[in-house]
Write a structure and sequence with these properties.
Blueprint (H helix, E strand, L loop, with lengths): L1 H63 L9 H14 L4 H16 L3 H13 L4 H17 L3 H8 L8 H14 L3 H15 L5 H14 L1
Helix pairs in contact: 1-2, 1-3, 2-3, 3-4, 4-5, 5-6, 5-7, 6-7, 7-8, 8-9
Subcellular location: Cell membrane
Family: Belongs to the YfgM family.
Membrane topology: Single-pass type II membrane protein
């Protein structure tokens, strides 16, 4: 029994010594760990709320987008797009907002404004996909403005396989606008091959057929 009590006393003394040396640090570590866990959960909840808010604004923007004469609500598109750009700057939703504003500008015939909105995405894209989509649309606007050198420069960049067909089609449009018939024909033919009969191939075939009839 005496040995047992002495052993207990020795253990208690070791515990007191250890606590004096390490107790404060241990408490700090525990507090930080708990605080980090709480902070992480709060951050996740905040992110979830923000994502829901952004998604709601995006849906309102897209739902109001005019698709034809007399439909849609351009003012609602602009209001929700402005909110996305202001509250979620630098993110994908802000990029889609700029694309929506560019589309409105094209429908209004304001090509300078459309190009300005698209360049905001091209210059600081949230994702590579957004960059490529915005750049293709920018090229179409530049062609409509007869800014063929600028359009050709944009098309000279590297394109992902999924967008090769569209890029080649636009190269054909640039060549056609310059009356470079052989280059246009080759670009359209390459675009058809890249598209492999998928979306857009009927449009490119019509361009190629029209070009063959003219020349």
């Amino acid at each position: 029994m005496a040995d047992y009590i002495r052993d207990e006393e020795e253990q208690a003394e070791r515990l007191r010594n250890w606590w004096q040396k390490n107790g404060v640090a241990t408490v700090v570590v525990i507090v930080l760990a708990v605080g980090s866990m709480i902070g992480w959960r709060q951050w996740q909840q905040h992110q979830s709320v923000e994502a829901g808010k952004a998604s709601g604004l995006y849906e309102k923007m897209i739902g109001a987008m005019p698709t034809g004469a007399g439909d849609g609500n351009a003012d609602a598109v602009k209001t929700n797009a402005a909110a996305l750009i202001d509250q979620f700057a630098g993110g994908s939703y802000a990029g889609y907002a700029h694309l929506a504003l560019a589309k409105l500008a094209v429908q209004d015939g304001d090509l300078d404004e459309a190009a300005s909105q698209l360049r905001l995405v091209v210059d600081k894209p949230a994702t590579k996909e957004l960059e490529h989509v915005a750049r293709l649309r920018l090229v179409r606007v530049l062609i409509a403005q007869n800014e063929l050198d600028a359009a050709g420069k944009e098309l000279g960049r590297t394109w992902p396989e999924s967008m090769q067909g569209q890029a080649l089609e636009l190269k054909g449009d640039v060549a056609k606008a310059r009356q470079q018939w052989d280059e246009a024909r080759d670009a359209y033919a390459s675009a058809l091959e890249a598209m492999g009969g998928q979306g857009g191939s009927d449009r490119v075939q019509m361009k190629l057929d029209d070009l063959n009839r003219q020349s």
